[in-house]
Amino acid sequence: MAEKIGLEVLTSLLDKVPGVFWASRMDPATGKSEWLHIGQRMAEMYGVTVDEIRDDPNAIMKNIAPDDRAVLERKIMATAERLTPMQWAGRVELGNDQVRWVETHTYVERQPDGMLLWWGQILDVTERRRMEEALADSEAARAASENLFRQVINALPVGVMVSNQKFEFLLMNPVQEKMSGGIVDHKDQDVTSAYGVFMPDGKTPIQMDKSGLVRSLRGETLEEEAIIRNPRLEHDVRVHVAWTPLRDDKGQVFATLGTSQDITKQRALETERNKMIQDLATSEASRAASEALYRQVIDSLPVGVMVASSEKEFMIMNPKHRNMLGGVVDHRDGDVTGAYGIFMADGRTPLPMENSGLVRGLRGESLEEEVVVRNPRITNDVRMHVAWTPLRDDKGKQFAALGTTVDITTQRQLEAELRTRNEQLAASEEAKTELIERLRRAVDELSNPILEVWDGVLAMPIIGIVDSRRTADMVQRLLAEVLRMQASFVIIDLTGVDIVDTKTADHLMKLMKKVEVVGARCVLTGIRPAVAETLVDIGVDFGRLATLRNLKHGLGEALRLARRDRDAWRDYEPDDEDREERQMRRRERAGASR
Predict the structure, then answer these.
(1) Thinking of the domain 302-407, which architecture would CATH place it in?
(2) 217 near 245, Cβ under 8 Å?
(3) What CATH number belongs to 18-134?
């Protein structure tokens, strides 16, 4: 009876075990293997037939990916040599680009007769692998329990327990013992209290008559979730238990099979995942609110804003810029400048797309440009100043270009009007300057009149300050008059000069020397006491130049020198009397005058 129960239990367990269970014996001396258990599921999993596997135990290797096959072969050799458990995961290539991920847990032990007993479990982990590859932050795949098979049933990666109608555990594998905190005596038949079994809330103890064990012994097939808490456990264990009634040949329930899994970590991960989902929703809501705020700010800016992607599609375009362009248009061919009617700054030459600021900005340039927009959607041409800035992600890779635009149509019109006004003003100022120059010359002529006070005698009264410009004008006019009038004497009157400094004195000295260079004598008159004191203090050297009190004295000196020159000239005339007679007459005249 016990063997029958054991066989039924084993068969039932093998049918319940996830994946595929297999077992074989190998004679180390001959290397021959004998399959103890192999099923159709195993053949399907490796893409071969059962007959192929029975004929050639290595048939399951042919569809394994070469890289993974090499790893598996090394692991098999190491396991056979060391008699240690082996775990391997690899790809089975089924054709038509279909790949199945399988995970095997293999155990080997030497039997008393020297034979090697191999057994293991094969799981299809394709879906789990896909989830691991698709979601880096997803729940870490639960590794298959170690020691799947130590002695067939005891090595299963799930908790296994079998209870009879007396609530006696006929079987409890190490995994289940670990989850339960070990086997305890429960003679009072209150199993749930003995093991500390609570409902999923972790607070309410499960009543024995409502437990999955009792319900399964009554014939129910069910699943339940419970928490185990007792002094033998370091922490609470949350388990998922599947209960299956075991029946004899007459259909009577004689025992129940419970397979359990520790889902503590899974629930923690689910809780963490739910929290992450909630945090993600909160973050998305915050991002949406932030994006709405940024868009509102951008839409309210007094300048145009546009963001162009690398495909030359506008990701952002605020109302200000849309108004300048006359709205958004379709430009699937990529010719943005043509679609929006963009011209160069001259307003006549269409802006080629390859030379546009948009394309250059997408190439990584930071630049500014001035363009003119002209299309049927806007009434008047719009002149814009556009500044382009490349936008890059955290890794420095450019993904878009930002363009900020300012409507400078009115500004350029005002600048043109201002240039016209400036030109008109410049022309007016030039005319005024010419008038002022003529007036200045007239004033200079009035301030520095050149008078012929006697035959061959010129007088030039000076009024005001004598500077370089005025001196040059006086020299030019005075020398011209001396030559024109054939003057022999020039009187420069300083009665109207109140202030004299070193520069003024230097100008006067040069003026007098230039007059003498052209053959006329020159005297200074009308030097005021203050001016005389200043000239002496600053050390002006008048040299041979004569100075007289006033214009009257200057005129007298001019007449005296003129008479002397005439007398001297008569002495040298060819038709006159001889020199002695002329000299005698001059002495007589001189004595008479005295």
Answers:
(1) 2-Layer Sandwich (3.30)
(2) yes
(3) 3.30.450.20
SS3 state at 287: helix
Q: How far apart are CA 444 and CA 449, in angstroms?
A: 8
| CA–CA distance, 15 with 493 (Å, rounded to integer) | 141
Are 206 and 199 contacting, i.e. CB atoms less than 8 angstroms apart?
A: yes
Residue type, 453: V
Tokens of 118: 């191999």
SS3 594: coil
Q: Which two tokens stand for residue 486?
A: 């054939």
Judge: domain 448-587, CATH 3.20.20.100: no
Global pTM exceeds 0.85 = no
DSSP string for residues in 140-190:
PPPPPPS-S-SSGGGG-SSEEEEEETTS-EEEE-HHHHHHHTS----TTS-
Contact predicate 256/229, CB 8 Å: no
Tell me the three state secondary structure of residue 395.
Answer: coil
Q: By three-state DSSP, how is residue 30 classified? A: coil
Which DSSP symbol is given to 135?
A: -
User: DSSP letters of 371-384?
Assistant: EEE--TTSSS-EEE
- Residues 224-244: b if buried by 16+ CB within 10 A, e if exposed: bebbbbbeebeeebbbbbbbb
Q: What architecture is domain 158-262? A: 2-Layer Sandwich (3.30)
Q: Which two tokens stand for residue 272?
A: 């963490």
Say how many C-beta atoms besides its own lie within 10 A of residue 25's C-beta: 16
Q: Give 139-143's long-range contacts (Cβ < 8 A, gap of 24+).
A: 139/266, 139/269, 139/270, 139/273, 140/269, 142/265, 142/266
Distances (CA, A) of 555 to 61, 458, 560: 141, 9, 9
Q: Measured between alpha carbons, how far is 485 from 488 in angstroms, rounded to an integer?
A: 9
Residue among 145, 139, 155, 156 nearest 265 (CA): 139
**Strands across the sheet containing 342-343:** 314-317, 304-309, 398-407, 382-392, 367-373, 342-343
CA-to-CA distance for 557 and 555, rounded, in angstroms? 5
* Cross-strand bridge partners of residue 93: 99
DSSP state of 207: P
Q: Please give the span between the terminal C-alpha atoms of the chain, in angstroms, as a whole number.
A: 188
Q: What is the mean pLDDT of each run of 10 residues along the chain (594 residues)?
A: 53 64 85 80 86 83 91 90 92 89 93 90 89 64 38 78 91 90 78 91 91 93 94 92 95 94 88 88 86 84 90 89 88 82 92 92 93 92 94 92 92 88 84 72 67 89 79 86 91 86 79 88 88 80 77 86 72 52 54 43
HEC sequence for 552-576:
HHHHHHHHHHHHHHHHHHHHCCCCC
Q: Give dist(CA 89, CA 76) in Å, integer.
A: 13
